[in-house]
């Protein structure tokens, strides 16, 4: 089987890139796998790419590329939805390259990895292939206008796959997608090559983009409580982003210089997590929680905010980590202190975390996708019938409305605004 992934920019950094590479590598054990990068801004990807995977960039943004001088680069994208936050990075050249590729793509399965790219998949992808939209952001993270666009396009695809069960339920309830399989498959995280943490290092670690939503400021505030009682413990923050200057100022303001440090971007991050005894996540929201699983795969317990939607599905509170209310500095500090002051507890939780994280082995995740492919192939005809019935019901409802006849609620087709009723029968996660 040939499987093609469509991704924004495989040459950058980010959770979607890591999880796509993890899944693609696992699938390459049994399939022909290709990753198509809409954009390319550097010669080599930042993350290692398995040599069995074919990389195909569509638009080259490097300064010496002919693409940068193409007049179409200066024209805004028409197909890539303007409601998508990456729209300004796309152009008519991207539209046309995506169309050219997808019109001739011979893959059996094509998987899009962000909303705007999934629109390309619906517009240009062959219906002979299984067309699957991955959602690495949550339903509610999209604007209402974007959800309306996606509601129209996703109903022509075979499946929508979220990273959490909770988000799949939201899609089922709020986006009417007859004939489309809505399900969840978690991100895969490979087993760490480093030795698991022994729980002895007096280090709390964290990692991610230095942006407001990750609430590293809250973590620094909570760490001031820990540092006051345990001045021999340190906080290491790995990552880069626009909040770097503000966070450094906050560290200095609280007199934490030397004990709380911005470490910059590190990849892979597992070596740094294994050198810590606790990993902290203070986010306001997580579509999944890659950092949490990466830490658990290193045998490190995680203290995380119980934010929507991922952490609560990954961490079993009090068993392999701790969950605290979002935005609660005191609760975060108390949970960190609980582990800092109890070496036996953090070693016990670390061992439990190592066991729990085995479910995120990429081979297990790849197996879940292979089972989904098989199911989608078997159910092609009944799903097509369901889609046709919904289409005719919708047309009939619109005709009745134009005639001034109010159809019965059970037969009515909701307005196509991307926020309709629950999917039809069988659309379970």
Please summarize what this structure is.
38% of the residues lie in helices and 16% in strands. It is an alpha/beta fold.
How would you describe the overall organization of this protein?
Helices cover 38% and strands 16% of the residues. With 429 residues, the protein is of the alpha/beta class. Helix 6 links the parallel strand 8 and strand 9. Helix 1 crosses helix 13. The radius of gyration is 23 Å and the shape is globular. The protein starts with a strand and ends in a 27-residue tail after the last helix.
Describe the protein's topology.
Blueprint (H helix, E strand, L loop, with lengths): L1 E6 L7 H13 L4 E9 L13 E7 L31 H13 L4 E4 L2 H10 L5 E6 L8 H11 L4 E4 L2 H10 L6 E4 L18 E5 L8 H14 L4 E5 L5 H10 L6 E5 L5 H5 L3 E4 L8 H7 L5 E4 L5 H4 L6 E4 L4 H12 L2 H14 L5 H17 L1 H23 L27
Parallel strand pairs: 1-2, 1-4, 2-3, 4-5, 5-6, 6-7, 8-9, 8-11, 9-10, 11-12, 12-13
Strand share of the residues? 15-25%
Radius of gyration: 23 Å
Q: What's the number of extended β-strand segments?
A: 13
Largest sheet: 7 strands, parallel
Helix fraction by DSSP (H/I, runs of at least 4): 25-40%
Indicate the multimeric state: single chain
Structural class: alpha/beta
Terminal-residue CA separation: 25 Å
Shape: globular
Low-confidence region ranges = 410-429
Main β-sheet, spatial strand arrangement? 3-2-1-4-5-6-7
SSE order: EHEEHEHEHEHEEHEHEHEHEHEHHHH
Number of helices: 14
Taking all residues together, what is the mean pLDDT? 92
